[in-house]
Amino acid sequence: MTQQILLFLALAVVAIASALGMLLNRHAVYAALFLVINFGTVAVFYLLLGAPFIAMAQVTVYAGAIMVLFLFVIMLLGTEVIKNKPRQTWQRPVAFVLGAILVIEAGYLLLVQVGALPPGGQIEPAFGGPVMVGDLLFSKYLLPFEVTSVLLLVAMVGAIVLTRRKA
Amino acid sequence: MLPITYYLGLSAILFTIGALGVLVRRNAIIIFMSVELMLNAANLVFVAYARYLNSMNGQIIVFFIMAVAAAEVAVGLALIVAIFHTKHSIDVDEISNLKG
Amino acid sequence: MLFSEVVNGPTFFFLVPWIVFFPLIGLLVNIIAGGKLSEKAIGIIASAASGLAFVVAVLQLISLAANPAGTVVNLADWINVGELHIRWAFQVDTLSVTMMLVVSGVGTLIHIYAIGYMHEDVRLNGDPGRFRRFFVFLNLFIAAMMVLVSSNNYLMLFVGWEGVGLCSYLLIGFWYEKGKDGIGNALAAKKAFVANRVGDFGFIIAAFIMFWSFRTFDFNVVFQRAPAVAQITPWAITAITLFMLLGVTGKSAQIPLFVWLPDAMAGPTPVSALIHAATMVTAGVYLIARSHVLYALAPQSQYIVALIGGATGLFAATIALAQFDIKKVLAYSTISQLGFMVAAVGMGAIVAGMFHLVMHAFFKALLFLSAGSVIQGVEHGHHHVEHDPKLKKKLKGQEKTFDPQDMRNMGGLRTRMKTTFWVYLIGALALAGIPPLAGFWSKDEILAEGFVLRPFVSILLTIAAFCTALYMGRQIILVFFGEPRSAPVEHARENPPIMTVPLIILAVLSAFGGLLNLPKIQTFANWLDLTLKTGQPVESASEAAATGGFNPLVALISVLLALAAIGLAWWLYYRRYPELQKLPATKRPDDPLRTLIGPVFTVLENKYWVDELYWTVFLNPYISLSRFLADVIEWRFWHDWFHDVVIVGGYGVITRLLSVRVDMGGIDAAGNGLGTAVQRSAGWLRRIQTGFVRNYALAVLLGVVTIIGYLILR
């Protein structure tokens, strides 16, 4: 139990730290790299939670594809630092306050109003494996699967159309 | 077994950080990345509950979320590029033509 | 009380409504088709209508000969309300038939005369188209007068009463745009109408009291119930009779309402003859004669009637002595003679009064028509002189003001208008009361009865008779004898037969009319008694005397007085007048009588200033009051102040209050305010749209936080 908590805490710290790093960093590239670390940490969490397939997918898709895409665009658009013209200066404090409230609310919900939280239990070894995922994906969730494929097509087309210059 | 509240709490914190990023940063790409962070936080909750409820449904949803997030990133970045062509800046505060 | 019809010879009672219908048909034909007819045709239609009415009257006479009690012929119901039942019904008895015969007979003669007279008159006055109107009005008058004399109840009588008043107004004002200052005739007509109106007021009050006491207007029922009512409420009978007397003074021109009759001479001469001498003015006498039952039950009223009659007779006769207008003399003479009649019926001598009424109708109509003939003759002379340059010189200074009716301009017409002279002479002598002409018998009967019943009144009437003879003598001599005193009169000529023939007929009637009621034979008296006696028998001294009598002493005195008066007139006007003419102009009196009675003559000439008195005492205050009410109260107060300031102003204030304060200030402000508020709030809310994405995201997060907070706290 203690091991698990320690492990959890260590990983949590990393995750939060990387998130904060992304938040606070001026340079976009550094922020992207911090986010990659975050994604990696979350993938580890997935493994801990018995979702190996999802963990791999996280690394592959999120960290591998999406973040690469981000980096591509960052490189494309130049990584200049945005001049610090103060605009909407009231936004920051309000945002922080709201964020704090949100955290407080979440904390309240978790700690005080502990309702019917599932206790957890034993899971089978193949839980979260590709067999089980594929099993469900092609039977029960076939329609969303197909629709998602169409969605991806649409996204592709959209991306091309949006960036096409009127030559 | 760790109580699920740990994961939920972590997810909440990550979500909040992502939200703050959206609100506070002015770089459009950073804002986008914060949105991805928020989505990730949600994914974490789903997976946690899938584990603790012994149900695969949560993981399947995460699968779909990822797919959608990918699509969304593609389109969103294309948008940012398109905007950059006109505005020559990725400061979201520059994009305020709809000011009433 | 219906008389039973005794079948005893031919009866034509059922024809009596035609006595009204024929004149009505005549006037309708003339109104509708008259525009396309010639003057002769119009005149013939009108005269025929009147003549047919006379025929019907004669038929009634024949019917009454067979059936002396008379009858009531019902035509239709008029008013049926509660206790009030009034019918259009004709009372055919000797009294009403007498009146019918006089009105239609004399009326027809005057219609014929008027054809010739109006032919000239409309041309002299310049409006030939008005010929038709005259005959329409004349026929209307005959119809109304017939309604008056043949009615069976007081209300139908009043309809005729008012009708003749209307016709009098229409005919006096026939030449409404002429007269003094272009309005004189219209003013005279108005005066007649208003004076009559005052009388009508009396009649109406009498009718009200009558209904209140008797619950009916029917003659027969009233006379039947009269004695009973007199026992219970004697004042009612007195009141009825006195108010009726007021009506009589209006219609028959007695004191105090006689003032309209002299002015009524402004109408054409046939009008004066028919309406203001023979028929309309006698309606009052007829009324009293008809209501003799009521008067017999109210002796005080009788005395007052007789007094008024006597006083009027004398009063008017004295005024006639000093008048220079030929028609004015005759007008005052009429008033005086009416006084005789009213005094007679007031005394209870009904027969005497009615007899004088018939005789007077003859010779007064004759005198008026002859006067009209004289005037026309003089007008012809005037025209002749005006259009002859040689003669015009003689008119120097007199062209505009030459008055064809002024006796001072006349003289010597005896040789120039022979027929007119003779008929006029007959009429004048009849009026003066020279036997054996008609006037002597009737006037003498009145005087005789008077000395028995009311001696004081009779003395007044005797003096009036003296004056009558005097002024008639004066008139005859001034007009016909001596030398002409002006150029037009020199060249006057006689009128055509259409005018002179009716005069001759009337002269015959005036000469031999006395035969109707010679003493001891008393045809007329017996005839009338059939009606007068068939009411409830009333015991009074007057009743016994109503059958008339003959007093040789009275007759002798009256004849001697008449002759003396004529002698005086001869001396004054035949002898002294030419002598006085030779005096230088400044010293020359315009009338020899002035030398006899001096200032009294001026009083008489000015008619005792009665008109001026009325103006000062009644009319001017009334007009001032009326003007005050109209100008001050009606206009300045009600209209200018109350209406304009209070109502309109107040309303304006309220309207302004509502419109400015409430509508514009309140409601509009609310509406506009709403709009402004929305505008302002919109402008205010607009600021949410900052255009910055981050702000929108902040809003979203804010919403999320709020909802979660709500869900937590629930």
Count every beta strand of chain B, where a strand is a DSSP E run of 2 or more residues: 0
The ordered string of helix (H) and strand (E) elements of chain B is HHH
Instruction: Report the portion of residues of chain B in β strands.
Output: under 5%
Could you give a short account of the major beta sheet of chain A? none
Name of the CATH first level of the domain at 6-80 in chain A: Mainly Alpha
Structural class of chain A: mainly alpha
Helix content of chain A: over 70%
Over the alpha carbons, how many angstroms does the gyration radius of chain A reach? 21 Å
Average of the residue pLDDT scores of chain A: 87
SSE class of chain B: mainly alpha
Radius of gyration of chain B: 17 Å
Low-confidence stretches of chain B: none
The main pleated sheet of chain B reads as: none
CATH topology of the domain at 6-80 in chain A: Four Helix Bundle (Hemerythrin (Met), subunit A)
The CATH homologous superfamily of the domain at 6-80 in chain A: NADH-ubiquinone/plastoquinone oxidoreductase chain 6, subunit NuoJ
Largest interface: A-B, 80 and 72 residues
- Low-pLDDT runs of chain A: none
String of helices and strands of chain A? HHHHHH
If classified by CATH, what would the architecture of chain B be?
Orthogonal Bundle
How would you state the average pLDDT of chain B, rounded?
A: 89
Give the terminus-to-terminus CA distance of chain A: 64 Å
Describe the protein's architecture and organization.
The complex is a heterotrimer of chains A (about 170), B (about 100) and C (about 725). Chain A has helices at about 1-25, 30-50, 50-75, 90-110, 130-135, 140-165. By secondary structure, chain A is an all-alpha fold. The longest helix of chain A has 26 residues, at about 50-75. Chain A is globular and about 55 Å long. Chain B has about 100 residues and is mainly alpha-helical. Helix content of chain B is about 80%, strand content about 0%. Chain B has helices spanning about 5-25, 30-55, 55-85. The longest helix of chain C is centred in the last third of the chain and has 76 residues, at about 610-685. Chain C has a two-stranded antiparallel sheet. Chain C is built from 29 helices and 2 strands. In chain C, helix 7 (about 220-230) crosses helix 8. Residues about 1-5 and about 535-550 of chain C have low confidence and may be disordered. Chain C is an all-alpha fold and about 725 residues long. In chain C, a hairpin with a 2-residue loop joins strand 1 and strand 2 (about 85-90). The chains are: A mainly alpha (about 170), B mainly alpha (about 100), C mainly alpha (about 725).
